[in-house]
Specification:
By secondary structure, this protein is α/β, with parallel strands linked by helices. Helices cover 44% and strands 19% of the residues. It folds into 2 domains: 2-100 and 281-333, Periplasmic binding protein-like II (D-Maltodextrin-Binding Protein, domain 2); 102-251, D-Maltodextrin-Binding Protein, domain 2, CATH 3.40.190.10.
């Protein structure tokens, strides 16, 4: 009997030690909704293979920045890159994780995905409230073969601090002088018109429910929710479709410099087939959280080595191998890798 009790006690001690070890290897992150689909897919595989859990809160880039600044998570995530001086002020590090595209999505009866053509002027004027109806002459001029009725446009935007908004408004600021002077760019702006949804999920849900609406979401959300995405005219003058190749073409224009903490925007890229609203999404680390930083980068380095196929299936562009090596060197220099 004593032997049985002893074995049971040893079992309990082993179980408690296992649970304690398990708790130590939980990684907590928060931030951008833009990369949530691919981070979730990577986390599932990582937990299955490595046994470490990633708890990622999809709360928007603004929330992710606040939480890492306050040191309440192991890492923050933002689609809006932070300038080196802001990183230094809050004692942070930054590196890109994956590249994707933001797409306008619409809910117009009879219009299918990839049929409606828009340019930056049309998108800008809709979001400024200057174009109010779908049969406006500017939209009809871009789409002479489509039947567009006199229905009022409902503009949908993000209500939370958002990296997707930062990418979208950086695109508008770069392509539309009226937007730059009247509204500008950032994770949060003062919207002239429209209704707000929380997260990419909120905007996707609004557009799916509200007839004759237009919104902007990361492409994976458009695909997952069967939303009607538009074509866009890029700076080269071509109407392009949002897809892996057009995002990749935009990504090819980027020169990510570790000396500048990889600070870079990819909007309005010059490539002939480049999607004009592309961007990298970034991971933020606190310099003083060295132990958790090692666990965080172990996860992302595993994803760099094993997650490209998953990213591509979800229409994200994996970082090119030279850029992955730049990230590794950058973090090694900072004492993390």
């Amino acid at each position: 009997m004593k032997k049985v009790i002893s074995i049971f006690i040893v079992f309990l001690i082993s179980l408690l030690a296992y649970r304690s070890s398990f708790a130590e290897t939980m990684i907590n992150g928060a931030g951008a909704t833009f990369p949530y689909p691919v981070y979730s897919a990577w986390a599932f595989e990582y937990n299955k293979i490595i046994g470490v859990k990633l708890n990622y809160q999809s709360i928007g880039s603004g929330g992710g920045i606040r939480q890492i600044v306050n040191r309440t998570v192991d890492f923050g995530a933002s689609d809006a890159p932070l300038k080196p001086e802001d990183l230094n002020k809050d004692n942070l590090l930054q590196f890109p994780a994956v590249i994707g595209g933001v797409v306008p999505v619409v809910n117009i009866a009879g219009i299918k995905a990839g049929e409606l053509k828009l340019d930056s002027d049309a998108v800008c004027k809709m979001y400024l409230g200057e174009i109010k109806y779908w049969d406006d002459k500017m939209i009809k001029g871009l789409n002479p073969d489509l039947k567009l009725s006199h229905e009022e446009i409902t503009v949908v935007h993000r209500s939370d601090g958002s990296g997707t908004t930062a990418i979208f408004t950086d695109y508008l600021s770069g392509a539309c002088p009226a937007w730059k002077s009247n509204v500008g760019g950032g994770t949060s702006v003062k919207w002239p018109v429209g209704i707000g949804g929380k997260g990419n999920e909120g905007v996707a849900n609004y557009v799916a429910r509200v007839k004759y609406s237009i919104g902007y979401v990361e492409f994976a959300y458009a695909k997952q929710n069967n939303l009607t995405y538009t074509l866009l005219k890029n700076p080269a003058g071509n109407f392009v479709e949002p897809n892996f190749e057009s995002f990749k073409d935009a990504a090819a224009s980027g020169d990510f410099d570790p000396k500048k903490d990889f600070y870079l925007w990819l909007t309005n890229a010059p490539g002939k087939k480049a999607w004009p609203i592309a961007g990298a999404t970034f991971i933020l680390l606190a310099k003083d959280k060295k132990d958790s930083n090692i666990n965080v980068f172990k996860f992302y380095d595993w994803a760099f080595q094993n997650g490209d196929d998953v990213a591509e299936k979800l229409i994200y562009v994996p970082l090119p191998e030279p850029l992955k090596n730049k990230v590794r060197s950058y973090l090694k220099e900072k004492g993390i890798y």
